[in-house]
Amino acid sequence: MLGEGILKGLGETARNFAGSFVSAERLTTVQYPEERAPVIEDTRDFPFLVYDGSDWEAGLRCVACQICEKECPPKCIYIVKSTDKKPDYVGKPQIYPTRFDIDISVCMSCQICVEVCPFEAIKMDTQFELSTTDRFGGLLYDRKELARSNEYYHSIHPTEAAEVDARLAEEKAKAEAKAKAAAAAAAAKAAAGPAATAAPVAAKPATPDAPATAAVKPVDMETKG
Amino acid sequence: MIEKADQIFVLLAHWLVSFLPAGLQHVAMVLLGVVAIVATFPALFAITVLLERKGLGRMQNRYGPNRVGPYGLFQPIADGLKSLTKEDIVPFKADAVVHFLAPVLLVVVVFMGYAVLPMGRNMTLVSMDAGLLFFFAIGASTELSVFMAGWSSRNKYSLLGAMRAVAQMISYEVPMLLSSVAVVMITGSLSLNKIVEAQNQYTYGLPHWYIFTPWGFAGFILFAIAATAETNRSPFDLPEGESELVAGYFTEYSGFKFALFFLGEYVGMMGISGLGATLFLGGYSAPLQVLNFVPSWIWFFAKIMLAMCAFIWVRGTLPRLRQDQLMNFAWKFVLPLTLLNLVVAGMWRFMGNGWLRWVVCSAILLLAYVLMARVGMRKERFGPRIYRYAE
Q1: How many Cβ pairs within 8 Å bridge chains A and B?
Q2: Do A28 and B61 touch (CB under 8 A)?
Q3: Which of A9, A78, A83, A123 could make an S-S bridge to B317, C-beta 3.0–4.6 Å?
Q4: Measured distance CA(A224)–CA(A75) in Å, rounded
Q5: Which residues of A touch B372 (CB under 8 A)?
Q6: Are the C-beta atoms of residues B139 and B274 closer than 8 Å to each other?
Q7: B370–chain A nearest CA distance, Å
């Protein structure tokens, strides 16, 4: 019968209309500033720099290796290497970034910088309310604005951060074991022939963290870029 | 007291006019009426738009606008301010004069329709003997404005929208006129006041509205369909089909001119609702005799707002028709039924007062409806397309 479908449809919309006033689960809208949808753990938008400890400048994990700067597809990262070295969070002297700028108006949130970073120094943030009245300076973040503590990292990506911490601890333990072994070997050598090995022993104190420097090695190769 | 409340606007106007010299009183009276109409209907338009946005939202299980003021009640003010402060862009190649005149003409024309509508007892601005004719004649001018807008914009979407609009409006004007002719036949007058008075009688406390007769019911449904199409409302909103024509004939309008089109559309809808209420729903008369103490103008505006709610409901329900469906529906279904309805109205008039005319008239209309639905609107079934390739 002609018109039956129309009546059925009118009934459906009337049911929706009345139902939306009585049952809350019909209304799926999350009224944003007051209500928020729960954030998924793997949410990401823009990168930030992780630091350990409480002082952001001293604890920055970044060693200014510039891999992320080179890999960044839209070229939104700008890094200036320091000329001096300064002890990092474990006390080892490292180069550090005197400038680390990310233009988040250019960033495309691809996470490649995070994937290439060998030091777990750059991670993705979940903070999305970044509107500003200055579209040039306001969206160009320097290293201070980018620095976030490891605790913050744990709070936004708990699983990932725990993995990272475990990996870092493992690497550290390995490095320490290796250093210990090297020291032990050196000590044995020194005990065997102190006269013959006088020169290597003198060089030894610098090598306890040899594996760590080895890890830095690929980073140091300066490409023509 | 009841009488005073019923005539409050009339008395108010007379009181205001009494301060003027006798020579000016007549002119001032008309001007007052015009000002009242031009002030009332945009206010109703604001309410309707809010109602529509919130109602449609609820039909789609959304909240609708709820940010500006309590429950979003000030949303129309914000919308109005926004449209006033927006830049008015006229396309470089557009015919600037016609482009400017189109929205003005639309608004003027839709407001002129109200001149003959009886909005309450003694509340007709111009009591014309041929009020219905005037309304339709003025209503037809909206097509001109639509076409002016589409043509002067120099935009293919505007022009396509205007062409569609004109084709649709002319097609549906015919059934709309014919469905109201039935009322004229029964009443014997083109005067809207007389049409309302004819319906403003009660037996057993029930009104003599024309919708409560077989031909009136059919006529009302047909009139409602035609009015929906005439005002370019969904599901007949092809002229402004957003998904295919950007915004149809007002694609190239921005700022307040756009708002004027918007206003014109809604005020036109209200005008046609008012006409429908006058013709079939007893105009300003109360739905029950016991409710006669409520002022007549309240009933008129209640009926208009009810019709607007129906428009919103239909818009929230039905998808847009295709152009050929639209035309088929107008010429193959609505038009034959309105013609038949004229015959039925004539039979009703001459079959006396018994129960027989109820049975006969209802049977004819029902039968015609079923037959038309079965035969006239039958889908042509195309088999699978067979391709024949050259050998």
Answers
A1: 42
A2: yes
A3: A9
A4: 16
A5: 2
A6: no
A7: 7
* DSSP per position, B288-326: SGGGGGS-HHHHHHHHHHHHHHHHHHHHHHPPPPPHHHH
CB contact under 8 A, B62 and A21: no
Q: Quick one: CA torsion of A93, A99, A103, A106, rounded to 10 degrees?
A: -70
- Cβ atoms within 10 Å, residue B351: 13
Pairing mode of beta strands A93-103, A77-87: antiparallel
Closest CA to B162 of B150, B152, B172, B145: B150
Q: Scan for tokens 């400038």, then name that residue.
A: A99
Would you say residue B220 has pLDDT above 90? yes
Cβ partners under 8 Å of residue B166, min gap 6: B143, B146, B147
Q: Are B58 and A17 inside 8 Å of each other by CB?
A: yes
- From the list B59, B369, B370, which residue is nearest A17 (CB)? B59
* Minimal Cβ distance to A16: which of B59, B318, B372: B59
For strand A93-103 and strand A140-141, is the pairing parallel, antiparallel, or unpaired?
A: antiparallel
Tokens 């035309």, located at residue:
B327
In the chain, the amino acid numbered B383 is G
The domains of chain A are located at: 36-184+198-225
Candidates A72, A52, A48, A69; CA nearest to A60 is: A52
SS3 B97: helix
On chain A, the residues whose CB falls within 8 A of the CB of B317 are 6, 9-10, 12-13
User: How far apart are the C-alpha atoms of A207 and B49, rounded to whole Å?
Assistant: 78
What three-state secondary structure class fits A107? coil
| Cα A128 versus chain centre, distance | 16
B158, B43 Cβ separation under 8 angstroms: no
Q: Which residue of B has its CA nearest to A13?
A: B59
- Residue B279: phi and psi, rounded to 5, are -75, -45
Residue among A123, A151, A143 nearest A53 (CA): A151
Fold of A36-184+198-225: Alpha-Beta Plaits (3.30.70)
Residue B356, pLDDT score: 84
Predicted confidence (pLDDT) per residue in B295-340, tens digit: 888 899 999 999 999 999 999 898 888 888 888 888 888 898 999 9
User: A211 pLDDT band (50/70/90 cuts)?
Assistant: very low
Q: Do A27 and B316 touch (CB under 8 A)?
A: no
- Compute the distance between CA of residue A60 and CA of residue A67 in angstroms, rounded to an integer: 16
Q: What ipTM was predicted for this assembly?
A: 0.77
Token code pair at residue A65: 């290796």
Residue A26 near chain B (CB below 8 Å): yes
Question: A27: burial class by Cβ within 10 Å (0-12, 13-18, 19+)?
Answer: middle
Nearest in space to B107 (alpha carbons), one of B70, B149, B158: B149
Query: Which long-range contacts link B343-351 to residues 24+ away (Cβ below 8 Å)?
Result: B344/B182, B344/B214, B344/B215, B344/B218, B345/B182, B345/B185, B345/B186, B345/B215, B345/B219, B346/B185, B348/B186, B348/B213, B348/B214, B348/B215, B349/B185, B349/B186
Q: From the candidates A7, A10, A17, A28, which should be mutated to test the interface with B, based on the most B CB atoms within 10 A?
A: A17
Reading the block at residue A178, the tokens are 């290796």
The first and second tokens of residue B75, run together, are 């949303």
What is the pairing mode between strands A77-87 and A47-51?
Answer: unpaired
Report whether pLDDT(A222) > 80. no
The answer to whether A17 contacts B372, with C-beta atoms less than 8 Å apart, is no
